[in-house]
Design goal:
With 403 residues, the protein is of the alpha/beta class. It has a domain of 172 residues: 3-Layer(aba) Sandwich (Carbamate kinase), CATH 3.40.1160. 35% of the residues lie in helices and 27% in strands. It has an eight-stranded mixed sheet, with helices on both faces. The protein has a four-stranded antiparallel sheet with strand order 13-18-20-19, sandwiched between helices. A four-stranded antiparallel sheet has the order 15-16-14-17, with helices on one face. The structure holds adenosine-5'-diphosphate, aspartic acid and magnesium ion. The site of magnesium ion (MG) has 4 residues, from loops.
């Protein structure tokens, strides 16, 4: 007998038929003698629909009320799944995040899990009940509902797996594993039988939405093996674990992120301290800066460019404009018609020439690179958004055409 955490995303619980399908998967694990905790997301596009509903009544609602609203989506699917399991004759109980012990920070909309008090979960499991928990949510120290950021139900599932020392954490979704690129966009994408935490973390952070990046971070920290698999077809998925292969894959995947904007501060004086001033101002407002590029100083000035999340662009420009005169910068320009395309692979650490191959692929489709950033296991380029699908295809062909 094992303790299994199973997470089902929005498309997996989209309607009654899908909920019954999930109930079949869950109860068959239970029938085999396992303890089962299920984490569910809101049905289909519910979260997007709720965001749209909020906009109808208030263009700038408070984050607290947004979380009050968004957390309701998961409540619906948890109750419906519990009812479907009930009808099949199995003991079941559904719990909201706070009932399942999720204690989070206060950052509405992007709260972090501080701890999961698993006592209620354990009590229910001791009664041999299947426990269905709402993903994506918790309670902060003011006793208010919080949400964990878009896609956060994956992280809820891993947090429960950690708290209960689960034997297995399965992330059921609408594709049957992690692929070398988004299989919905790149038909030649290849399914990976396994992938390391580090590579998966990079892919998730760089735009492969199949897993919430914080779920991978947590799984790595507590050494929880994840399986990403389909709720619609049976069969093995992709295992996310410490080391994927004895021989590291050169490249394990290509990812794309469109949620990005480039800001350039033109003509700042070429002297010490300016980068510090610019980036500390942005940090104080919670703006996450990604790729940074600084030109060589010429005629006493230089340009500093960087990328931010798209919805932080306007606020960042506004903030920086307050200081351009004081800093002696001549102008600020920004562009949100950009995409970041990245390759990830643990093997590139020990293999020269990977960047050149990636750039050759881009050149072959006449794609211009605006910015480049690298780490041991990834290379990212910033390009024009209209080039991004071609770019992903070209890069994928280059590295996987014979796979
Ligand atoms: P869920 O609702 O189950 O959480 P998501 O929509 O968040 O599902 O994530 C699954 C989607 O991730 C897939 O439908 C697929 O289009 C997308 N995706 C992006 N990159 C990848 C990849 N490398 N491998 C698999 N799926 C990917
Ligand atoms: N329902 C939330 C979202 O759409 C959380 C999740 O699906 O993981 O982002
Ligand atoms: Mg998801």
């Amino acid at each position: 007998m094992a303790l299994i955490v199973q997470k089902f995303g929005g498309t997996s619980v989209r309607d009654a038929e899908r909920i019954n399908n999930v109930a079949d998967i869950v109860t068959s694990a239970y029938k085999d003698g396992n303890d089962v905790v299920v984490v569910v997301s809101a049905q289909g596009d519910t979260t997007d629909d709720l965001i749209a509903k909020a906009a109808e009544v208030n263009g700038k609602p408070s984050k607290r009320e947004m979380d009050m609203l968004l957390s309701s989506g998961e409540q619906i699917s948890a109750a419906l799944l519990a009812m479907a399991i009930e009808r099949m004759g199995y003991p079941v109980v559904s719990l909201l995040g706070w009932q399942a012990g999720f204690d989070t920070t206060s950052d509405y909309g992007n709260a972090r899990i501080k701890k999961v008090d698993a006592s209620r979960l354990k009590k229910e499991l001791d009664k041999r009940r299947i426990v269905v928990v709402t993903g994506f949510q918790g309670l902060n120290r003011y006793g208010d509902m919080t949400t964990l950021g878009r896609g956060g139900s994956d992280t809820s599932a891993v947090a429960i797996a950690v708290a209960l020392h689960a034997d297995l954490c399965q992330i059921f979704t609408d594709v049957d594993g992690v692929y070398t690129a988004d299989p919905r966009k790149i038909p030649g994408a290849v399914k990976l039988s396994s992938i390391s935490y580090d590579e998966m973390l990079e892919l998730a952070t760089l735009g492969a939405q199949v897993l919430h990046n914080r779920s991978v971070e947590m799984a790595k920290k507590y050494n929880i093996e994840l399986e990403v698999l389909s709720s619609l077809t049976r069969g093995r998925g992709t295992i996310v674990k410490e080391e994927s292969n004895v021989e590291k894959m050169l490249i394990s995947g290509v990812a794309k992120d469109d949620n990005i904007a480039r800001i350039s501060i033109i003509g700042v004086p070429d002297k010490p301290g300016l980068a510090f001033k610019i980036f500390s101002k942005l940090a104080s407002k919670g703006v996450n800066v990604d790729i940074i590029l600084q030109s060589i100083g010429r005629n006493g000035t230089k340009d500093i460019s960087f990328t931010v999340e798209k919805d932080k662009m306007e606020d960042s420009i506004k903030l920086l404009k307050e200081y351009t005169d004081r800093w002696g910068a001549s102008n600020i320009v920004a562009d949100d018609n950009v995409s970041k395309v990245s390759i990830v692979g643990a093997g590139m650490e020990s293999h020269p020439g990977v960047a050149a191959e990636m750039f050759e692929a881009l050149f072959s489709r006449n794609v211009n690179i605006q910015m480049i950033s690298t780490s041991e296991i990834k290379i990212s380029v910033l390009i024009h958004k209209s080039d991004s699908d071609r770019a992903v295809e070209a890069i994928h062909d280059k590295f996987f055409e014979t796979a």
